[in-house]
Amino acid sequence: xxxxxxxxxxxxxxxxxxxxxxxxxxxxxxxxxxxxxxxxxxxxxxxxxxxxxxxxxxxxxxxxxxxxxxxxxxxxxxxxxxxxxxxxxxxxxxxxxxxxxxxxxxxxxxxxxxxxxxxxxxxxxxxxxxxxxxxxxxxxxxxxxxxxxxxxxxxxxxxxxxxxxxxxxxxxxxxxxxxxxxxxxxxxxxxxxxxxxxxxxxxxxxxxxxxxxxxxxxxxxxxxxxxxxxxxxxxxxxxxxxxxxxxxxxxxxxxxxx
Length: 258
Prior knowledge:
With 258 residues, the chain is α/β, with parallel strands linked by helices. The protein has ten helices and 15 strands.
């Protein structure tokens, strides 16, 4: 995992990662079983679980733990971890002191808030409860939640109330994610209501920035969102194939590889 510039951002240790991976697969775990498998005392396992609970990753139960987030979120958080953190850090560097920005729900977009340590007077508007869980630990950030219907698999707020809030506000930058992107199909997603949030944010931002790891390139979701020409910048990782880079640059798509 990439380190941030304020070291309020704790890196997950190997055992913590293993626990989260197991929770994503199985939905729960028992202290006694884990202690036996790892040849550790139950006290040691409970200490690890307590640390993860304090960070907001899980909820301890009698004799075990369950995830704090939907399994879909946990699974996505475990994918392309280093790339997502590099992308989020690069996105955060674009945010100035005094900025008002929108951050759409997603595992990469939410990480942007973790890299705003040291920024002053930044106001975030978001429909992401995951972004909020990170932002709330930074007292220097002002956060406006959109309201709306809560979707647990995406940790997002959607629907008419969310769209109404976004429609009343104007910001300099909007950071959005995607389930897939390509030159031919543009940005796509699997959820219609998520697509509506992205479109609304784009209408009320001076610039819209797509943050997505390179594994999303070439994938096509159910719903078309925006053409790539509609975003001011795409921040992705350096594993994007050379052919894709050349294709995007030839089409005058502004690209930042990290």
